[in-house]
Amino acid sequence: MPTHSPLPSFHNTPTHSPRSASPTFFGSPPSSAVAEKVALSYQRARAASGGPFRRFGDLFQALRIPLGKAQNGSRRELSVPVLKILHPSRPLPFASSSSTLRGDKYKRSPAIGRIADSRPGLGSLVRVLLALIGTLLFLLVSALSSIKLVGSILRIGRNHNYNLPFTDPSTLVFTPAEIERVWRWEIASGHYPSRRSTPGVSFDVPGGGGGEAAAVAPVVRIENPGLPKRTEEDLRREREVKAEVQRRLRDQAGIGAGVGADSILALDKKDKVEVVPVGPTREYVDIPLKGGRQAQAYPPRPLERAAIDLDAVMDHCDFAESKYVRDCLEVLRINGGLEAPLRRGLHDSWRTTFVPTIGSSASASAPSDRMRDTLERYRGDMSQVLNASSSAFASLVTARQQLTVSTQMNPFMSRKHSPVYTPHPSHPSADPACDPDYPRLFHIFWAGPFTDKPYSAALSFLYTQRLALDSPIGSDPTHEDPSLCRPQLWIWINPGPASSFPDPRAERRMRADLAKNPWSAPLLHSRFKDVVKFRLWNTTEQLDGVSEMKGWRNMRLFNSGGVKYGSAGMAKDAEVAVAKRAESGDGEVADDQDGAVHDQKIAAPLPTKAKDELFERVGSSANKYDRLSVVLSDMARFVLTHRFGGVYLDADTILLRDWTELWNWHGAFAYRWSRLEKYNTAVLKMQRGSAIGHFIFRTAVANGLDFHPMTVSRYTKDANLEGLLLRLPDALFDPAWLNTEYYQRDRPPQPYFKRFEDFFDTPKDIGAAPVATGFDGFFKGAFSYHFHNFWWIPFDPSRNFPDLGPRFQSGERTARGRLLAAKLASQPAGNDATTATGSSGGPSPTKPGETRGLPSPPTQIARREGYKWGDDERDFAELDWSDERVEEDERDLSWAAVLKRTFEAYVRGERPNLYGEWINWDEAGADEY
């Protein structure tokens, strides 16, 4: 093959240079067929390398630097591609082609770009360094330009809803003008009490919204009643800081080339939105707290109007800023007075709790009743606000801001009397001091039989919140304390399939079932009737009550992260079928035990394959949980908070302290998905009829009714509305999550959970902590703990029943009887307890395999053929555990068992709650309390 051929050579001769571009084959040369294929492939590759890539490659030339000779005498070289224009063999761009570098001992070898072996001079070394550095700078600038170009393309594509490769499609359905109005309305409503950043969208800028403002846009001034008005001292410090910044910019302008007065002005106007605080001033509570743990045995309740500054909390707790959960919890419990500080010195930088205050000269003009009614009407249909004319929207924003400021000033207008509000129709049982715009409601959604999980969540609510349970039953504690605003726990029971329709008997049957269930029956006691409410969930009724969900019956009802369940038109078809069959008396229409009339075939069009069995389950009696109900709950949390306000809690959440300070923070929030910058909506706080809620519903409807928290994270990010739904650190509500995912294990909080199962099955090496430290040693400082499902693991295996004392003995006996009957059913046939008489024959309720006194079955029941003890719950009426011994209990109690028993001891009246308040079981009007 000729040496001048463009095809590679395959001759493996000793003179072949190891740096040659041709491939080298060791051993015998390849066959002609193989050589031809390889040569053709190289030829095609060179031909295909044309276009911009080839032109880009033509800019470079190899610079071969000799490295001496190897032991075998062969030449060693380092080949580096450099820009042709800077190659030492070429003249410099600014020098004459005939000019040479004096003293240059480099000489071009016959091989192009090769430097001779002779010792190079200083000029040659400078040329080599210049070529290398210049090439590196060229590549760096090219890479940065490419990244910026790709970023611009992706940003333009997402803003214009273009589906680009390797990116999630944009979920944005709002226009820039609508996004701007969402921001303005929420700020005017006091729902943005944060200084961490200004709104990230452009205001009053053509083409703005969701992006950066234009360079020539004027600064937009927005008044924020959610932030405290700046005092003269604050303004003076702000002017000093601004003057210092401008001075430094001038100093930099005097040194840096090309930076003048215009550049300083452009830098000074970088922020196009100026948020002006106009709300009440804040008086931060000093720490250590007066009357805290150093002065009494129990921590003090937060002041009724105290609020938590979540900006300050983020400074101490933000995982993105490398803050540790352990340190965050210390700051939180010191501010809450949960313990006396051990650290000496000033704690000013740790203060997070404040009380709003207003000077005596402050005044606010409240909107008229007509304007209040107008604002309330618009709250029910936020689309009218976002689509109003510019002048009408400006008037509404002004009225909304005036209403916000007047509401905040209302407690100060008359200092002798606490404010009295008119309850909203959605929450008529609220105390007079409860602001209807900010109802104190906890929502829990539950499907299937009531178990120990919602039972424990409800008991934690009774144990930690300010409910005035120390007053007699039937009395009104607000007469003694007019400022009292008791939170309420609304437990939403979903008795039937998702597409069930309202039935007048459903409510009655739900309450009958709850009264028969040992876990829920105690919560129906009159002691808790003012604070614990059971509500019937009906998907049809709830979705019909949300104006943004119009047309939901023709959609795929269930969508979780893009995975859809059900079929289009499911609810509509089910409604028609149920109506027709109910009229004709068709037997296929089922009236289930919960009273929900539905069609079994249409109401649950779920997968029928064996691998999809978990989708057909109802309840949580095993590790195969009801996935469909979980997907429904993703939507229910937004429906409930948007219709009624308050906070949604997953039923696998345990409250750990008073939430007064969080109630008085009037923004919306969820918390972080562990290490990811996504939302976890196991805790979700939103205001009733808010603009951010309207945005989420409209966006979800346009994206297939997907309310999965990961998808909601995309909604807010695409619209640049993340600031309106604050993503709090999970240290506040889920302090073990980072540890379970192998983060912060060098400094974990107390207790140290490596798995979420450690809550139920505490490892032996830390098994002494639950009993030794009790509730006081469980993530002290956090507001709640989320144990992430595990519905199939009991809280207290050895006492898996409601242990609330003689007052609720009937339900306890039933629950223990069911456990005992289950143990009897698992015994061998020869150990049948139905033959037991007298005081012998049954296994122990707490020790399987041991015999204890089991009463004989009633005669009239025992005569039935095939009857076994426990088939009828009347058998449980004669059970007696009075001789139960403490030795029969398990030795190492888990954290779950300790928390459950602590709550139950409070309800029994054997210990006070977290804040030293004893429950009162006396009736109002009795002679003795």
Summarize the structure.
The protein is an alpha/beta fold and 929 residues long.
* Tally of individual helices: 25
Sheet with most strands: 7 strands, mixed
* Basic shape: globular
How much of the polypeptide forms β-strand, as a percent range? 5-15%
Q: Using only CA atoms, what is the Rg?
A: 37 Å
Q: Which class best fits the helix and strand makeup?
A: alpha/beta
Strand order of the largest sheet: 10-9-8-15-18-17-19
Q: Give the integer mean of the pLDDT values.
A: 77
End-to-end Cα distance, whole Å, is 113 Å
**What ranges have pLDDT less than 50 throughout 5 or more consecutive residues?**
1-30, 96-113, 206-215, 255-270, 567-578, 580-625, 832-860
What is the oligomer described by this structure?
Answer: single chain
What percent of residues adopt helix (DSSP H or I)? Answer: 25-40%
Protein name: Glycosyltransferase family 32 protein
GO molecular function, one term: transferase activity
Region (Disordered): 1-28, 824-867
Keywords: Membrane, Transferase, Transmembrane, Transmembrane helix
What this model shows, in words?
The protein is of the alpha/beta class. Among the domains are: 49-170, no CATH class; 199-281, no CATH class; 441-718, no CATH class; 797-892, no CATH class. The chain has 25 helices and 22 strands. The strands form eight sheets. The protein has a seven-stranded mixed sheet with strand order 10-9-8-15-18-17-19, sandwiched between helices. A three-stranded antiparallel sheet has the order 5-7-6. A hairpin with a 5-residue loop joins strand 13 and strand 14 (597-599). Helix 4 (176-188) runs parallel beside helix 11 (390-413), helix 5 runs antiparallel to helix 6 and helix 12 crosses helix 25 (895-908). The protein is globular and about 110 Å long. The N and C termini lie far apart (113 Å). Mean pLDDT is 77; it is low at 1-30, 96-113, 206-215, 255-270, 567-578, 580-625 and 832-860. Keywords: Membrane, Transferase, Transmembrane, Transmembrane helix. Residues 829-848 have a biased composition (Low complexity).
